[in-house]
Amino acid sequence: MADAGFQAPLLAIRGLNTWYGESHILHGVGLEVHSGEVVTLLGRNGAGKTTTLKSIMGMVGRRNGSIAFEGTETIAFPSHRIARMGIAFCPEERGIFASLNVLENLLLPPRVRTGGFSVAQVYEIFPNLKERLASQGTKLSGGEQQMLAVGRILRTGARLLLLDEPTEGLAPVIVQQIGRSIARLKHEGFTILLVEQNFRFAQTIADRHYVMENGRVVDMIPNAALEKSMAKIHDYLGV
User: HSE on the CB side for 164, CA within 13 Å?
Assistant: First the structure.
């Protein structure tokens, strides 16, 4: 008989292998993310973190294993079908359209499910964007571009957000603002899986941390145990 207190994970990955051409990048990756969690992927450059996010979205050459979202197996689905299930990917390069202004960028992606944010709600999370409403994508700072990239996917109705290096290259004050925004999104009921090099930042927002090495998950550290695991983290990350 099933445990009445058991909650199936929103995202469950088992035995995931991924290739780019002939290069075997992910080797049996397994992890899970529960509804309402913020979970980070930590690891050195080239560990397979970004490839894991792209594999979830079907944006890789070849993959096998199991990726289940809300109990539905997605390993054979194309990217557009995965997006329409309610998963959104915010890449490290952000993908802002330089020829469009802030509002046009926000309105560009289609809604895939009900419950997406209105433009007004996006501005509430990221008030900087409201001040730059008519600014072209090329005129925004790195922090503003990151806010716009996240705000854009909030409108789609996605409930699982995949964020790749959201603080990369940003000033400390903007990193703090991004952290507050992620905490707010968690409070609003979003589930977030993010790749993050800055484990000190990750510590302020995440529930759990998976550590990757050479295309494998080698550890899972609850956030409450991160401080006690700092020597191990330094060893994993080479810092």
Answer: 19
**Strand order across the beta sheet in which 216-222 lies:** 87-90, 160-164, 191-195, 38-43, 208-213, 216-222
Beta-bridge partners for 217? 212
DSSP bridge partners of 32 = 12
d(CA 188, CA 184): 6
C-alpha 160/C-alpha 178 separation (Å) is 17
Judged by phi (left if over 0) then psi (alpha if -120 to 50, else beta), residue 43 lies in: left
Tokens representing 207? 């529930």
Radius of gyration for the alpha carbons in the chain, expressed in angstroms and rounded: 18
pLDDT, tens digit only, all 239 positions of the chain:
444 455 899 999 999 999 999 999 999 999 999 999 999 999 999 999 999 999 999 999 999 999 999 999 999 999 999 999 999 999 988 888 888 999 999 998 888 888 889 999 999 999 989 988 889 887 889 899 999 999 999 999 999 999 999 999 899 999 999 999 999 999 999 999 999 988 889 999 999 999 999 999 999 999 999 889 989 988 988 87
Is residue 43 a contact partner of residue 211, using CB atoms and an 8 Å limit?
yes
Q: Is the dihedral of CA 12, 68, 164, 103 positive or negative?
A: negative
Does the CA dihedral 50-55-56-59 come out positive or negative? positive
Question: In Å, what is the CA distance from 231 to each residue of 54, 200, 223, 238?
Answer: 30, 13, 15, 10
Beta strands, E only, 21-80: 23-33, 38-43, 62-69, 72-73
Measured CA to CA, the distance from residue 239 to residue 228 in angstroms comes to: 16
